[in-house]
């Protein structure tokens, strides 16, 4: 309902204007984990028996991860307590681009980064810095998580942790 055809066409024009391979692409996004979302929904017990554990759960601070995935899996992850702000996000992106040794200048390895349209991702200073390093950022259309395979990875991780 909220997907705009013009956004999808812009994304397709940008991706088609580049000479990319699977080894160029890096998808990055943040994911948060906290007690409330990761508690088993049905309690801790064998099915059909009485609950083994009852009581109050201690609320721990939220932990957020910034993950970078390529065609061979997760390349790097950064964590922070709470949520990522623009400064933390920029610092982690610069560390990955400069210090990891996994990112080359375009058209090199991991040089095309695909991000969602979150406001912390759209910093003009970060975009210019990434372009100076030879990294090309491309923004996904709004309300289109099905274009971003990292969302499926996060879903599988959360499902595994919830177990």
UniProtKB/TrEMBL annotation:
Segments passing through the bilayer: 132-157
State the signal peptide span.
none
Quote one Gene Ontology molecular function term. Answer: nucleic acid binding
Which keywords annotate this record?
A: Membrane, Transmembrane, Transmembrane helix
What's the superkingdom here?
A: Eukaryota
Would the keyword Transmembrane helix be found if you checked this record's keyword annotation? Answer: yes
Instruction: Tell me which InterPro entries the record gives.
Output: RNaseH_sf, Tc1-like_DDE_dom
Per UniProt, residues of the Tc1-like transposase DDE domain are: 25-163
PANTHER family (UniProt xref) = TRANSPOSASE (PTHR46564)
What's this protein's name?
Tc1-like transposase DDE domain-containing protein
């Amino acid at each position: 309902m909220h997907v705009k055809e013009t956004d999808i066409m812009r994304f397709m024009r940008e991706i088609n204007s580049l000479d990319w391979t699977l080894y160029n692409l890096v998808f990055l996004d943040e994911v948060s984990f906290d007690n409330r979302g990761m508690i088993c929904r049905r309690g801790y017990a064998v099915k059909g028996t009485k609950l083994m554990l009852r009581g109050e759960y201690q609320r721990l601070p939220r932990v957020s991860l910034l993950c970078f995935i390529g065609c061979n899996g997760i390349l790097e992850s950064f964590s922070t307590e709470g949520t990522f702000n623009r400064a933390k996000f920029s610092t982690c992106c610069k560390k990955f681009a400069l210090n990891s040794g996994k990112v080359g200048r375009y058209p090199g390895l991991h040089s095309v980064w695909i991000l969602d349209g979150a406001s912390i991702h759209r910093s003009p200073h970060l975009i210019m810095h990434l372009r100076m390093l030879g990294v090309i950022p491309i923004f996904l259309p709004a309300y289109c998580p099905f274009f971003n395979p990292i969302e499926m990875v996060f879903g599988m991780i959360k499902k595994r942790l919830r177990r």
